[in-house]
Design a protein that fits this description.
This protein is of the alpha/beta class. The protein contains 4 helices and 6 strands; from the N terminus they run ββαββαβααβ.
């Protein structure tokens, strides 16, 4: 993981994983999630342009279970915006949009909840300010 904040964040810092972070929706949501005491861990298979000072970047696919396990380490919440929004081969859509490795990757690490932009309903949690 790359961070522009330099040293590791203090243990009292809230960390939110945002998947699909290079996409249009996540680009709009990132400033709304940013606040003092919060670090956004941005995950996408595409490079993430212009990460802010309290943003960590992870270049990986939501279909990569090992990468997701690492990205979910010490995460308080997940905002799942990753997925394929255009036509792709069936197996690729299955891996990214349907298999949903994300919920299993947390291994109990994402304690406060998961919010998803996907149609399939998942357990959701509220993000405290």
């Amino acid at each position: 993981m790359k961070t522009r904040a330099g040293d590791a964040a203090p243990s009292m810092t809230q960390r939110i994983l945002v998947t699909g972070a290079a996409g249009g929706l996540a680009t709009l949501v990132r400033p709304l999630l940013a606040c003092p005491g919060r670090v956004l861990r941005l995950l996408d298979i595409a490079p993430i342009p212009a990460p802010g000072p309290a943003e960590e970047t992870v270049q990986a696919s939501v279909a990569d279970l090992d990468a997701l396990r690492t990205a979910c380490t010490q995460v308080d919440a997940v905002v799942h915006l990753g997925g394929l929004s255009t036509e792709h081969p069936g197996e690729q859509i299955l891996d990214v949009n349907i298999k949903r490795h994300l919920l299993g990757a947390g291994g109990g690490e994402a304690r406060r909840g998961t919010a998803s932009a996907a149609r399939e309903q998942q357990p959701r949690g509220r993000l405290p300010p």
